[in-house]
Amino acid sequence: MSDEDHHPELLLLHETGGEIEGRGKYHKLLDRYRREPGETDVDTVLKDRGPFDEGLSRTIKRYIDMGIVEADEEGQSRDIEETEKGERYVSGFERTKSYLDDSFQSTRDRVRKVASEYGSKSMNELVQEPDVQEDKQRSLGTRLPGDTDSGEQE
């Protein structure tokens, strides 16, 4: 199964307490997930503040339309928050996926590891991580590799 079937974006939001302060931080948490060992469909491109998942905005819009997340669109930070409906949805989703899909446990473990290690850090702290700084040395718009082992190749 692919990440798309496992919704790591939604799981990350849930595992960070249902709220992520700013979409920039959301992008950096997804990048941390991408760097965890294992297969991932998270497609990241380099922007001025580091790795950026081009599909995140569409994904968040879809979640907003479903009523499972809310976004503070008025402020600069565009905070993302899980709704009550979203919390119930993720709980049921996790139970069902765990029962029906053996590969889901790996995704959930990787998400939990990222959330516990990096969820309380600010976006600025995430940008200062050595591997993000290394990525920032590449040309803007560069597609970043899907795993850390191929990070040395260009």
TrEMBL record:
Where on the tree of life does the source sit, at the highest rank? Archaea
Query: Where is the segment annotated Disordered?
Result: 116-154
Please report the name of this protein according to its UniProt entry.
Uncharacterized protein
